[in-house]
Amino acid sequence: MSSDTSTADIINVPTDFAQAYVFDLDGTIYLGDQLLPGAKRMIEELRRRRIPVRFLSNNPTKDPEQYVEKLAKLGLPTDIEDICNTVVTTTRWLKENHPDAKLFPVAEEPLKRALRKAGFTLTDDPSEIDIVIASYDRTFDYHKLQVAFDAMWFYKRAFLIQTNPDHFCPFPGGRGEPDCAAVVAAIEACTQMKSQVNLGKPSPIMLAEALQGLDVEVSRCVMVGDRLQTDIQMALHTGMGSACVLTGEATPDDIRGLDDAHHPTYVLDRVDQLIPASAWRELGWTEDND
């Protein structure tokens, strides 16, 4: 394996396998509709070794079934139980903590559909709303902001939660799109009330969902992602190992600017560097034959 000369000073790769791996998706396994280099053979090798693999996403605009479909199209067939996103965590958290609440989701259809399926009443009547859910919503408008404002500020009955803390969603070509944090900021600004819970990375709630049913030690698992403030921060919060891949949001300069307390365990040019170099040699891998 080799590293680009511009990143050689920060690359730090594992020398052994972990008990389980939890992967971010966009920017880590794929970017847009293309698998990132080495992703397919890496996942296949981990599965061949019967090492558990889980996928996480802070994107609430897709439900787990849509991720199953996308990964299958990309050549990585995946069981639905191996996928956890903020549609799952938000629905389960509400079911466990506020099962009778009437909800106003500032959200797109996948989250609304999951909440209805779980038996929740969704309403845009501010006098009835118990919880306002801020989410990644490309249909966000002034009317939705007014409903949230009235429910929280005028009627003083609702509180705010959020599906994820991301400021933007990265796109291929260096572009992006405003994410949930923009919606949260608008609601907090007018109501002067803060969101009470985040249900996406870096919340430990999401990690607990991802590792559910696995007989593993958190400290011997690795969270793999491209975002320092969500993927890597979640691992740091929970004592889990972390690997930052430089194929998405994080840049080499971002890594160089970190102090020891916030530094990921590993830094990778490409995601298949998770596979130790000794295994690369056994498998006959090179960066040109992925």
Give the arrangement of secondary structure elements:
Elements: E1 20-24, E2 30-31, E3 34-35, H1 39-48, E4 53-57, H2 64-73, E5 83-85, H3 86-97, E6 102-106, H4 109-117, E7 121-122, E8 131-134, H5 142-154, E9 159-162, E10 168-170, E11 176-178, H6 180-191, H7 204-210, E12 221-225, H8 228-238, E13 241-245, H9 252-256, E14 266-268, H10 277-283
Parallel strand pairs: 1-4, 1-12, 4-5, 6-7, 6-8, 8-9, 12-13, 13-14
Antiparallel strand pairs: 2-3, 10-11
Helix pairs in contact: 3-4, 5-6
What can you tell me about this protein's structure?
- The structure is a single chain.
- The chain is α/β, with parallel strands linked by helices and 290 residues long.
- Helices cover 33% and strands 18% of the residues.
- It is built from 10 helices and 14 strands.
- It has helices at residues 39-48, 64-73, 86-97, 109-117, 142-154, 180-191, 204-210, 228-238, 252-256, 277-283, and strands at 20-24, 30-31, 34-35, 53-57, 83-85, 102-106, 121-122, 131-134, 159-162, 168-170, 176-178, 221-225, 241-245, 266-268.
- It has a 6-stranded parallel sheet with strand order 5-4-1-12-13-14, sandwiched between helices.
- Helix 3 (86-97) packs parallel to helix 4 and helix 5 (142-154) crosses helix 6 (180-191).
- The longest helix has 13 residues, at 142-154.
- It is elongated and about 65 Å long.
- The mean pLDDT is 94.
